[in-house]
Design brief:
Order of helices and strands: EHEHEEEEEHEHEHEHEEHEE
Site (Transition state stabilizer): 149
Strand order of the largest sheet: 3-4-2-1-14-13
Site (Important for catalytic activity): 218
CATH superfamily: Endonuclease/exonuclease/phosphatase
Keywords: Hydrolase, Magnesium, Manganese, Metal-binding
CATH architecture: 4-Layer Sandwich
Binding site for Mg(2+): 7, 34, 147, 149, 247-248
CATH topology: Deoxyribonuclease I, Chain A
Family: Belongs to the DNA repair enzymes AP/ExoA family.
Oligomer: single chain
Number of helices: 7
Helix content: 10-25%
Strand content: 25-35%
CATH class: Alpha Beta
Structural class: alpha+beta
Distance between the termini: 6 Å
Shape: globular
C-alpha cells in the first residue's frame, strides 16, 4: 500500500501535473495540502475520472486538505483538528482507507516569528500532540502525514545556520515537534534513510531546486502497528522539476500486508 503526502500549492493551478503524476505512479492513497480552493471549486470530477475516490476540506485562497484513494472511497472520520472550535482554517482531515487510519495535515507556517502567527503554530502543535496521543494508542495502523512545516534537525535543511530564526526551525518549533515524536511515532523516511540528505521542498527563488537547496518538512509519522508494516519510503523528487510544479515533491511510503 503506497501512501503519499503532496503539498500541491493550488490544486487547480497544478491539476495537469497532479493527474500526470497519478497516472505514472498509481499511488493507493494521496494526502494533499494547500488546495487553495473553496469547497465547491475542488476538481472532483477530474480526480474521480483518474480512478480515485476523494474527500476534501477546502478554503478560499488558502490552506485546504484532501485524501484520495485509488479505486476506493475514503471513510471520513473528521475534518477539523480537535481543541479549538474557533479555528476556521482548513488544515486537517482524517479518514480510513483499507484498514489504515490516515490523518492528513497542513501545519501552520508560523512566520514571522515571534508574533501571532508563530503563537498560532505552537498552539496548533499542542493540539496535534493531544490528538496524536489518542491515535498512537490504536492497535490498528495509523499514518499521520502531511506538510508539517517543521525542519526536525540540521541534516534536514540546506545551510541550517540560515534558518535559526525561521518559524520552521526555531527551537520552540522543534521542541514541540519533539514532544509529539516522544510519544513513540516513527519518522518513516528518516528511519529507512538515517544518513541520507533528503529534501521535500525547494523554494521558487534563487534556483533552489537546481542547487538542491531544500528542506525536509513533509513527514510520515507511523504508530507501532503501521511501523511494523513499513517497507520502503522515498521522494518523487523529479516532479518538483516539472513545468509549473509545486514547490513540494510527493513523499511516499509503502506498507506491506495492509491491502
Amino acid at each position: 500500500m503506497r501512501i503519499v503526502t503532496y503539498n500541491v500549492n493550488s490544486i487547480n493551478a497544478r491539476l495537469p501535473n497532479l493527474l500526470r503524476w497519478l497516472q505514472e505512479t498509481t499511488p493507493d492513497v494521496v494526502c494533499l495540502q494547500e488546495l487553495k480552493a473553496p469547497q465547491e471549486k475542488f476538481p472532483e470530477a477530474a480526480i474521480r475520472e483518474a480512478g480515485y475516490g476523494v474527500i476534501w476540506h477546502g478554503q478560499k485562497s488558502y490552506n485546504g486538505v484532501g485524501i484520495l484513494a485509488r479505486n476506493a472511497e475514503p471513510t471520513e472520520i473528521r475534518r477539523v483538528l480537535p481543541g479549538d472550535p474557533e479555528d476556521a482554517h482548513s488544515r486537517y482531515i482524517e479518514a480510513t482507507v483499507n484498514g489504515v487510519l490516515i490523518g492528513c495535515l497542513y501545519l501552520p507556517n508560523g512566520n514571522p516569528a515571534p508574533g501571532p502567527k508563530f503563537d498560532y503554530k505552537l498552539r496548533w502543535l499542542e493540539r496535534l500532540r493531544i490528538h496524536a496521543a489518542e491515535l498512537f494508542a490504536r492497535e490498528t495502523p495509523v499514518v499521520l502525514t502531511g506538510d508539517y512545516n517543521v525542519i526536525p534537525t540540521e541534516r534536514d535543511v540546506y545551510k541550517p545556520e540560515r534558518w535559526v530564526d525561521d518559524a520552521l526551525f526555531r527551537v520552540e518549533t522543534r521542541e514541540a515537534f519533539g514532544r509529539i515524536m516522544s510519544q513513540g511515532w516513527v519518522d518513516a523516511v528518516r528511519t529507512l534513510h538515517p544518513d541520507a540528505q533528503i529534501f521535500t521542498f525547494w523554494d521558487y527563488f534563487r534556483n533552489a531546486y537546481q542547487r538542491d537547496a531544500g528542506l525536509r518538512i513533509d513527514h510520515h509519522l507511523l504508530n507501532p502497528a503501521a511501523a511494523r508494516l513499513l517497507e520502503r519510503a522515498g521522494v518523487d523528487r523529479e516532479v518538483r522539476g516539472w513545468d509549473k510544479a509545486s514547490d513540494h515533491a510527493p513523499v511516499w511510503i509503502e506498507l506491506g500486508g495492509s491491502n
